[in-house]
Amino acid sequence: MTSIPRFIHSLAALGLALLAGAASAAQHKDPGNGCVVIAPRYLASSDYTFQYQGACKSGLAEGKGKAVWTLRDSPQNHVAWEGNFSAGVYLPPPTGIVSAREWSGSRGSSDIVIFNLGALPAQNGVPAARLQVEAAADLTHYPDPCNPRTLWVVNAPAAALAGDAVAQTLLAAAADKLKAHCGAAFSKTDLPGHDRSHVQVRAVATPDLQSDPWGNPGPVLAGAFIPLAAGGAMESYSNEAASQHRQQLQQAKDSDDRQANVQRLRTFFKTHQAKGWASLDDIAENPFRYSGRVVVTAAEVSVMASPTRAVLDSRPGEWRGSLAVLDGDEIGPWKPGPRLLAVRVLGRVKKDECDSFCGLPQLQLVGSEVCTESRCTDWLRLPTALQDGQKP
Q1: Which residues are within 8 A (CB) of 207 and not within 5 positions of it... i.e. 6 or more apart?
Q2: Confidence (pTM)
Q3: Most exposed: 97, 137, 267, 280, by fewest CB within 10 Å?
Q4: Which domains does the chain have, with CATH numbers?
């Protein structure tokens, strides 16, 4: 039987290793001391042997140490990470990284770690925000905060970020801190000749970056792509905290407006001694239900028949709007537009007027108010809509 070349075995082993590590970055355990280092899944291939020497805490590399991956068939070729470790994560130079941890919550990706670079400068309303940097491993290369995917501002209170000036200053401070940490290396990318011009910064309220059950970080309060060059323009800025604050203010205003409308309608009903609400559609269907009573309705003049008579339309400009005839001495000077009306329902137009208005409900004007919005929503914006016969 023809033997399968060894490199095919190696590729198969590598593929299985990649699949096995799909859920998170690979945990490489020294077979002798049992200490674990977080490293790329690529190095988990059976083609490599792994050894760690150094400090260890709770089974994870912590403090000074050296991790080495050696090719089985080429011992002179190896990958070595030497320096400080935190929770199994290698801390690349320069110094200044407070801590690090494995991160499996970034949009389902793997080989991601989070570096904690410590406190950001305090500002008004944001006394204790910190910078965490999301970075990814690449084949045999360790994750590096100076080659970030995203910068995360954690412990950012939503109330303070409701102001765009505070939010933008905080996002820029995160980029400035990492620039100060990394120096010129920050602008470099893995692609020669393609320097980094912007970095993505996002802010969350939680003390540490967290993810939902689907691996999505957040919820994000604010974010932008921050320019690295002085004077550059911030791009794709968004501020969910400000949007939520505006929504809350609008909801409070809407509630106040609705309560004010209730009082305004109550005054209108009381002034004209109205017995209840009736839509013009309901009146047109059966005006005798309201015969002799004063009711409040909303409509717009469709035709001015005379200085004292107008034809009302319940839905001007729409198909099948209900019509009614309104009589009153005050009608003549009216300008076009919707009105809130207190009317006495008299029944239907008499037979001697059938040439023009036969069968339409006949109403007598008692009082009116001009509306500023279509269908008088400026008057009828209430906590609950008025029903037939109801008073506010």
Answers
A1: 154, 155
A2: 0.67
A3: 267
A4: 1-91 (no CATH), 100-260 (no CATH), 272-380 (2.40.50.140)
